[in-house]
Amino acid sequence: MSDGSSFYITTPIFYVNDVPHIGHAYTEVAADVLARWHRQSGEDAWLLTGTDEHGQKILRTATANGVTPKEWADRLVETAWKPLLKTVDIKNDDFIRTTDERHEVNAQKFLQHLFDAGHIYTGEYEGFYCVGCEEYKQPSDLIDGVGEYAGQQVCAIHSIPCELLHEKNYFFRMSTFGDQLLALYEENPNFVQPESARNEVISFVKQGLSDLSISRSSFDWGIKVPWDDSHVVYVWFDALLNYITAAGYGHDDEKFSRLWPATHVVGKDILRFHAVIWPAMLLAAGIEVPRQVFGHGWLLVGGEKMSKSKLTGIAPSQITDTFGSDAFRYYFMRAISFGQDGSFSWEDLSARYQSELANGFGNLASRVIAMIVRYCDGEIPVGGDFSEADELIRGTEKRVTDAATLAISHLAIHEAIAAIWELVDDLNGYITAQEPWALAKDPANRARLEAVLVTAVRGLGTLAVLLSPVVPQATAKLWTALGGTGLVTDQRIDRAWEWSGGPRVFPLEALFPRIEATVG
Hints:
The protein is an alpha/beta fold. It folds into three domains: 6-118 and 235-318, Rossmann fold; 120-172, no CATH class; 346-498, Isoleucyl-tRNA Synthetase, Domain 1. Helices cover 48% and strands 16% of the residues. The strands form five sheets. It has a six-stranded parallel β-sheet, sandwiched between helices. Strands 5-4-8-10 form a four-stranded antiparallel β-sheet. 46% of the residues are buried. One of its GO terms (cellular component) is cytoplasm.
């Protein structure tokens, strides 16, 4: 179905120091929805996710648990991070681990290239280092501690004191790329989005860039610096390279040429790494910069960022075990403006499940299928003369398809779903106004009844296509019930209203069953 154009999208690769929470799943689902949408638009879409397994934080966590770092990483990847993808129904094309040989070997190639080109030198550095962030912190990144850390400066993200480190390391001449980065942001305003993220990055770079320490010699859990095996590569310098090593850099030129550049979806707390350090690294290597870096907001629980250390982490399975993966995907993509912070609550999740999914979309699907079974013995009518009300529904199908497609091009997933939901609401209103149950009582109204039913079933099929990237399990069931041709994922989403199906409908179980108890 590919039309030859590519859309390469990535999530961050996640630290394996702990199990995932819904903040991680939120990023995975957003990238997956975008990949599915582009795939159904005829593009060669490729979704990458994975795990970041090197660095001091992983070493300390593994040691505290009495295992080697590799044993710890293997355990977490197989029991937590890969199962997460199934839990929230992610259709990724690749899963990279920074301990994979394909990554380590080609990351070393990249580093050697920069060294040979004179972009790396030996130097000394002293500063406050947050092991949680794996980053040296500037004074502006620190805040006053509270509780047991009162009177101390702590990391603004992890709320723990930083460590004063003095190391002799290898440095990347990042300071030389400030002007090029500012020119990039100016010439391509979409490179960093949303606008608030772009403004933050520009302000940071305008303050002047320092050179970046890219090696560590105080511990040995990491990729060896190729010309000096007494040093390992700084974990972020290592991790950022996953986006190109997975795409073929250093070992598959054809694949790399086909896929690169990528769209990176990241949390705003790691925006600077992706929008400043990463493009500077690529500029130094003579490689095209990413297509876009999109920094989404945080998930907040009780007004605080989702965090295992603060006991605000919620496992995705706590939601999916009760509501299902489709409801998880729908809720977080619809309830939160993508790019902004958003608060999670069990009450809001439960309310939206009932009103929007069960009553709005699910009940609509059940009613339409049931009426065709009852009034037409399951055969989809051909329809005849269509009224203005019927044509308005047809117009809505086309209008919301175009609106959703435009929203997705800006990564505004919440706007796309809101546009699609206009068709859900219009169809429900249309059925209420046309009263097919009343029309069915008089044979003289047969033609009108059939026109109403075929209009409703056409709209329902369009919804199945448009919502398939968001709620893939429900739409697959609906597609089967509608007698849709092939798989719903094979339908062109940018021409959703053109879907085709068979002559009859089939039984449909409740797409979003009633949930008796609210969890939380």
